[in-house]
């Protein structure tokens, strides 16, 4: 169980999940499962929950990471 939690909270996994959530929202509207108004509300919630973490989740170690 600890291994699963470690994998789900890894930086690369979180960065991947943030991108997938955006694509899922587009598909839900495209297939008519939710309306554009609902998508806007959910996108606002997702932006509040995931926008900042997505911007701050490093996927590669830069040259300044060890300084």
Structure description:
The protein is mostly helical and 67 residues long. 70% of the residues lie in helices and 0% in strands. The protein is built from three helices and no strands. The chain has helices at 2-8, 11-30, 36-55. The protein is elongated.
**Main sheet makeup:** none
Radius of gyration: 15 Å
- Distance N terminus to C terminus? 34 Å
Number of strands: 0
Number of helices: 3
Low-confidence stretches: none
Structural class: mainly alpha
Helix/strand order = HHH
Give keywords.
mainly alpha
Question: In summary, what is this structure?
Answer:
The chain is mainly alpha-helical and 67 residues long. Helix content is 70%, strand content 0%. It has helices at residues 2-8, 11-30, 36-55.
Write the SSE topology.
Elements: H1 2-8, H2 11-30, H3 36-55
Helix pairs in contact: 2-3
């Amino acid at each position: 169980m600890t291994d699963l939690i470690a994998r789900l909270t890894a930086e690369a996994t979180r960065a991947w999940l943030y991108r997938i959530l955006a694509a899922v929202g587009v598909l839900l509207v495209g297939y008519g499962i939710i309306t554009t108004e609902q998508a806007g509300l959910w996108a606002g919630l997702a932006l509040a929950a995931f926008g900042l973490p997505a911007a701050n989740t490093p996927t590669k170690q830069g040259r300044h990471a060890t300084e």
